[in-house]
Amino acid sequence: MERPVKKHQEIALNITDLAYGGAGIAHLGDFIIFAKNAVPGQRINARITKVKNSFAEAKVLSVIEEGPEYRKPPCIYFEHCGGCSHQQLDYPAQLTYLHKQVVDLYRHLGQFTSVSVSAPLPALRIYRYRNKMEFAFSDQRWLIENFETEKPENFALGLRAPGNYWKAIDINDCLIAPEETGKVLSIVRDFALQNNLSAHNQKKHTGFLRHLVLRKAANTNQLMINIVTNEDRHNLFPPLVEILKSKFDNLRCVVNTIAKGWSGTTLGESQHLLFGNDHILETLGELTFKISPASFFQTNTVMAEKLYETVHNYAGVSKEDTVWDLYCGTGSIALFLARNSKQVIGFEVVKAAVKDANINAEINGISNTRFIEGDLDKLFQKNPELLKELPAPDILIIDPPRGGMHPKLVKLVAGLLPKTIVYVSCNPTTQVRDIKMLLEQRPYVIEKIQPVDMFPHTPHIEVVTKLTAPDS
Fold first, then answer.
1. One domain for residues 112 and 136
2. How many CB atoms lie within 10 A of CB 23?
3. Which one-letter DSSP state was computed for residue 209?
4. Does 4 fall in a domain?
5. What is the pTM of this model?
6. Does residue 458 register a pLDDT over 70?
């Protein structure tokens, strides 16, 4: 195919659709052009930045005509951060495009041409919905032209720039983070600069301050602050803790995590409790959960309740049912189902999560759960007797990480023959891939598909799919 555009060419484009990830789509015949930060309905002037055989990428120079679904983004960092790529779309339009993308994945990637996908459950809050935010320190501030030029170039506390793992955009607030975020960022930034505490260099692995992690329980209002550093100098922080205590009545935990490794993770080798408890408490429905600094917990508490209600309804558990919860994390779904089932067995690779799951069961007075530590891809290969010892599942819950399931595990699931499978995924692409593999081995029926918008203004969508055995 002859390429209809050249790099650096300026061109007028009509944006007709939205790609996964948030870029606007324009067509020149069969040739596709992706324009970042453009929305359907717009006519734009753009400059071509990359050209491939079947597509090109472009940068918006100006908007000739605005689209009906466009909304001015309230975040001043929108064009630079990249975290909320759908923020300039009207919220109902966001749901429409997310729904379309899930439908397209099932019908085209999965070849499930006759399935019906329900409309996404809309978020109850579209701002200030995250209960956890990880901010990065960097000694290389991402410079924005004519913006906050008075700030030092060798210190930033904020969010990583798109496609750049070593620089950070120094931000004053984040509109999807807890309400306390702006004030916490300001206090910690001022303390670091006044005390000459160096920011981390991800390339050289130098610099003291690495990350600042905020967690806030939406229903109990309890706040946790975790300062992640490159070395153990926790004796520096008592004055900072006193300032934070004086500003936040809901502060329940301040911890210093020591992370000496090269990876950019906020997990570390050791921790120092600087104030309060080593955890915060959160409630979901009638359940209470202990959240430690390293615990996994759904980042949108309000919508997590809607998600788990959907899982509970799809599972249809009864007092005669044994439930297996693969990738159970800290046991949130398992505990939601336990009171209506005979027993729930959870599997989880992270040792600390298994410990938290058992604690959460104890906190809630639930005794019909069992949590097993192990890598599911290898667990039953290493211990085949375990598969024989455990009661077979009537209902199977699958909630894997974004990468989905290993093909060997899909094969194992097919051999378990549960009457109902509920597959929960934050990545519908891998979900469809796994379900397609499963149905090639067992003739399960896709009965229901329910997207849930856990992450407003982003291209991400949670999807709950119910599969039933043909004879159940």
1. no
2. 21
3. E
4. no
5. 0.91
6. yes
Identify the CA nearest to 251 among candidates 299, 219, 290, 216.
Answer: 216
- Tell me which residue has tokens 């990637």: 109
75 is catalytic: no
Is residue 117 domain-shared with residue 139, that is, in the same domain? no
Q: Do residues 173 and 215 both lie within one domain?
A: yes
Q: Which two tokens stand for residue 185?
A: 């960022």
Q: Mind listing the pLDDT tens digit for each residue in 3-39?
A: 899 999 999 999 999 988 788 999 998 899 999 889 9
Q: In the β-sheet with 462-468, what is the strand arrangement from edge to edge?
A: 369-373, 343-348, 322-326, 395-398, 420-425, 462-468, 445-452
Secondary structure of residue 404 in the 3-state scheme: coil
In a domain, 45, yes or no: yes
54 C-beta neighbours (distance < 10 Å), count: 9
Count of residues making up the chain: 472
At residue 20's C-alpha, the angle toward residues 17 and 24, to 5°, is: 35
Residue 265 binned pLDDT confidence (cut-offs 50, 70, 90): confident
The answer to whether the Cα torsion of 139, 207, 176, 401 is positive or negative is positive
Question: Of the listed 84, 174, 328, 426, which one is catalytic?
Answer: 426
Residue 279 shares a structural domain with residue 344: no
CA distance 431 to 424: 8
- The rounded Cα 248 to chain-centroid distance in angstroms is 27
Residues 79-111: b if buried by 16+ CB within 10 A, e if exposed: ebbbbbbbbbbebebbbbbbbebbbebbeeebe
Task: Identify the bridge partners of residue 369 per DSSP, sorted by sequence position.
Answer: 344
Tell me: do 265 and 373 sit in the same domain.
no
Note down the domain range covering 139: 132-284
- Beta-carbon contacts of 77 under 8 Å, excluding residues fewer than 6 positions away, are 159, 169, 171
How many other CB atoms are there within 10 angstroms of residue 366's CB atom? 16
Token look-up 């130098």 returns 206
32 falls within a domain: yes
Closest CA to 165 of 182, 145, 140: 140
How far is residue 278 CA from its own chain's centroid?
Answer: 23
| Tokens coding 198 | 């160096």
What is the dihedral angle through the alpha carbons of 423, 424, 430, 432, rounded to the nearest 10 degrees? 50
Q: How confident is the model at residue 82 (pLDDT cuts 50, 70, 90)?
A: confident
Structurally, the chain folds into a number of domains equal to 3
**Tokens 């291209």 appear where?**
459
| Shared-domain flag, residues 329 and 464 | yes
Q: Flag whether 98 is in a domain.
A: no
